[in-house]
Amino acid sequence: MLGMDETKVQGRIKNRQLLNKIFRTLFFFSTLIGLIVLVMLLARVLTQGLGWFDWEFITTMPAPFADKTGILAGLGGTIALMIVVAPVSIIVGVSTALYLEMYARQNKLTRFIQVNISNLAGVPSIVYGLLGLTFFVYMLQMGYTLIAGGLTLSLLILPVIIVASQEAIRAVPNDLLEASYGMGATKLQTIVRVILPAAIPGMITGSILALSRAIGETAPLIVVGAATTIYSVPDGLLSKYSAMPIQIYYWVSKPQAEWQFVAAAGIMVLLIVLLLMNATAVFIRNKFQKRL
């Protein structure tokens, strides 16, 4: 009997080891395929765009001719959009997360709100564009302006920031909260002096990643009236505007081959902006973690 039991145990161990090797190989090749596709895409963008990518391209306004055009209007519009999106989405998102985690009663209504916030994070961006068109452009009569586009993008990334901020708040050790309450601190004092300093790295990281998503969105901006061709940088909240994804989309849609190279150079600028934002998120997170 002991011999049969040992044989069964050894057989199960071999099966588990074989299964482990199969899944490890599967995961490895899945990762490899993703990396290969990414490298191929980057290589194509670089080979097409390097000949057009220079400082003059970044600092030049769009033009009717490929050899004279630039991305300054789109870059300036994207920066202006982020100036609107960042404070609105971060302040509202973090405040909502603090309310849900620290003040709201855990009942059916709260759970219903929580589930819907999570679901809203997966709603297609075009739906937010239609919402922005209906509410901001028409109902509030903002028109096809910078503030309408910025508020629409704020709605788009708001669920992501709320969820990321909630996770950062939940990661704060309960011992810190209990110690704060034990010292006689109020809930507001605990939030300001304990929770926010400990949760800021996660909040900032999630917020910047959400802003990175907003920078790359095209569909909602098309719906709310971002211009494909504009020859100025926005100088106010009610100004007409463009954005880098809109300009890239416009260039790609042109049939002439040279515009495809211009679009590749625009993609390079967009990737650089996104990489800088992600690097900023990592830097801020590490800086705050060292302080804690």
UniProtKB/TrEMBL annotation:
Gene3D superfamilies: MetI-like. It is found in: Cell membrane. Pfam families: BPD_transp_1 (PF00528). It is a multi-pass membrane protein. One of its GO terms (cellular component) is plasma membrane. One of its GO terms (molecular function) is phosphate transmembrane transporter activity. Keywords: Cell membrane, Membrane, Transmembrane, Transmembrane helix, Transport. Residues 75-280 form the ABC transmembrane type-1 domain. It comes from the Bacteria. The keyword Magnesium does not apply. Its main location: membrane. The chain crosses the membrane at residues 21-43, 71-100, 120-140, 146-169, 190-211, 259-284. InterPro entries: MetI-like, MetI-like_sf, Phosphate_PstA. One of its GO terms (biological process) is phosphate ion transmembrane transport. Belongs to the binding-protein-dependent transport system permease family. CysTW subfamily. This is Phosphate transport system permease protein PstA.
